[in-house]
Amino acid sequence: MSAASIPTAEEAVDRYRRLAETDAATYLPDLANSLNNLALDLDRVGSSEQALSCLEEAIGHYRRLAGTAAGTHLPGLATSLHNLACMRRDRGRHEQALAPAQEAVTIYRQLAETDPDTHLYFLAGALNTLAIRFAESGRHEQALPPAREAVTIYRRLAKADPDGHLPDLAGALSRLATCLADTDRREQALAPAQEAVDHYRHLAQAWPDRYDSDAEAAAALLNGLAPS
Predict the structure, then answer these.
(1) pLDDT band at residue 189, thresholds of 50, 70 and 90?
(2) What is the Cα–Cα distance from 97 to 81, expressed in whole angstroms?
(3) Which of 19, 66, 75, 211 is at a distance of 20 to 30 A from 187, taking alpha carbons?
């Protein structure tokens, strides 16, 4: 994404903002979506404060929309919250990243209860992200429950669609092993670490360019956990 594309994204925001002033029911969703997209574009070119401002406005609009049509607009709210958590984390604001990450998990859990085929994958991703955010904030014990739940969900998804979700399961297992090691549960970390190695090696046999480095990193984690 280049800076040259930013004016087009800004024009879309301005257009939908004007339209939403006279017909919010029709155009507020478009305004929220265009703000979210502009935030991502700004973030890619390093305009971090503007990106955060746009994203926070988008979240406000999605909250309003979800209050009247939750099924339609909760996914957009959850996505924007996830993006906010990532942006805050990228700027070293680890504590401030926790609240939106937790709320995203809550929303995706609600959505997955009614439509698991669509939203269970996103719940697993949000849980994995939350585990990382807790760990980055030094809250290693709190990172364990979402890390474990992410593994459970990815295992279920990988059983139904190995090609689509085995990489996700392998990554979540490595994350869980790291979380266990960070809480002085090194022996418990060995099993998920070994399973992650097994999955990555299997994936690397079919797609070496994509997974050789992941297999090496998983093996290094496992070797680091082995008793000396």
Answers:
(1) very high
(2) 9
(3) 211
